[in-house]
From TrEMBL:
Organism: Campylobacter peloridis
Name by which UniProt lists this protein: Peptidyl-tRNA hydrolase
Annotated gene: pth
Family: Belongs to the PTH family.
Alphabetized PROSITE patterns for the sequence: PEPT_TRNA_HYDROL_1 (PS01195), PEPT_TRNA_HYDROL_2 (PS01196)
Quaternary structure and interacting proteins, as annotated: Monomer.
Keyword tRNA-binding included in the entry's annotation: yes
Gene Ontology MF terms: peptidyl-tRNA hydrolase activity
Amino acid sequence: MTLVVGLGNIGEEYEQTRHNVGFMLIDLLIKDLELTKISNAKFKGELFKSSFALFLKPSTYMNLSGESVKAVAKYYKCDRIIIIHDDIDLNLGALKFKFGGSSGGHNGLKSIDSHCSNAYERVRIGVGKESDVITHVLGKFKEDEKEILSKVLEHAKKALLELLDSNIEHIASKYSLKAK
């Protein structure tokens, strides 16, 4: 079973922030796919199931995302994990794909690495970088950024749906985007 995880922070104050692009992509997928919501407190998140994959939005806050990922992956014996996350090392409008690697200082990835290892595929959505990184990633997208974000998320949705039946190298060569 494949587990697709969108990273973000729970709570109204974090909606539409750069750190929540993983949640945003999962929400797009939930709208388009026929999914069943699964309720189980031990999963520490919102979990949805299709005939071909599980879709998770951890409710542990970013820094503890690994707890939720581990609980679901262990329970369903997931043999493949795909993590969707914001990436400050990529400009807004960029989209990259990779397998494994370092967390790059991303606290959600650090948590997943410590609970599950770093042997997972990553969908990296660029959000850009400013000198005050925490304020930047926890900040909401500006009006002039929302159109770029919308296009990247739609593109990422297509890529992710194809990735479920493909491999990361093929998807990286076909769907990676450089920021304009």
